Amino acid sequence: MSRVSLEGRVAVVTGAARGVGELMARKLSARGVRVALVGLEPDELKQVSARLHSDSDHWHADVTDHEAMARVAAEVKERFGKVDIVVANAGVATGGPFVDSDPDAWRRVIEVNLIGSAVTARAFLPALLETRGYLLQIASLAALTPAPMMSAYCASKSGVEAYAHSLRGEVGHRGVKVGVGYLSWTDTDMVRGADRDDVMRELRQRLPWPSNKTYPLGPAVDRLVEGVERRAAHVYGQWWLRGMQGVRGYLPAVIGTVGQREMRRFGDRLDGLRVGLVGAGGAADEQRRTGATTVGK
Length: 297
Fold this sequence. Notes:
By secondary structure, the chain is an alpha/beta fold. Helices cover 51% and strands 11% of the residues. The protein has 11 helices and 7 strands. It has a 7-stranded parallel β-sheet with strand order 3-2-1-4-5-6-7, with helices on both faces. Strand 4 (85-88), helix 4 and strand 5 (134-138) form a beta-alpha-beta unit. Helix 1 crosses helix 8 (217-230), helix 3 runs parallel beside helix 4 and helix 4 packs parallel to helix 5 (151-171). The chain is globular. Residues 9-188 form the Ketoreductase domain. This is SDR family oxidoreductase. Keywords: Oxidoreductase. InterPro entries: KR_dom (IPR057326), NAD(P)-bd_dom_sf (IPR036291), Sc_DH/Rdtase_CS (IPR020904), SDR_fam (IPR002347). Belongs to the short-chain dehydrogenases/reductases (SDR) family.
């Protein structure tokens, strides 16, 4: 598929304070894209904006807040005159056995990753329809295969994958393209936060290769940006994820067998394990909602 020039386009990136969102903003800016940064960490967003090569601005907003995101969409349109690209990247994660999970943290993962993505699209689709633009929904390997100890995250990413595929069929005839970006474990604050728990780290390391590795952020984001340039329906942050599509029907049984074996292996170490929203992004979300710090094990 041929690529289109991004020079002069306007992109909105959610979850832009760090990780995938921050580097997406930098790499899009280097291609001449004007960038609107959206997230929960205003100081970090301001710093990211100041380092970009092109014109940019930032907005402090919770992607699950319909009114706030509608306001942001109107202000971005006023500030830049149009919106050509939206990268729905904002996300949080938690882990641990479902039976012992914090109900509020579990629900929040669904709210941010799934509902927040839909709220983002709802706010910016009118502008994308005007420009016949492109929406990239960031999903995950977790959309392709379930994993034990990650029920909320897997449910949310399976949800955004299905939602984005449905949306593609609705808006394609009006010129708007919708893509889904898949990432395996990538070196971000979220993944590093999950790895701080010994059980979660050891369990991940015992997953089948190549899903047991942490991959560098730069090459993964390069692939996502190339997907934006191609207005691609599917974008894979790691080369091997494309092959997972062909075998995804078999993966639940394989992972389920591995998961049962590992759950028996960890035994009593799982009792009472409760991992709250992980990483600095999760901490910012928790602070935004409750004024408290992130809960731990």
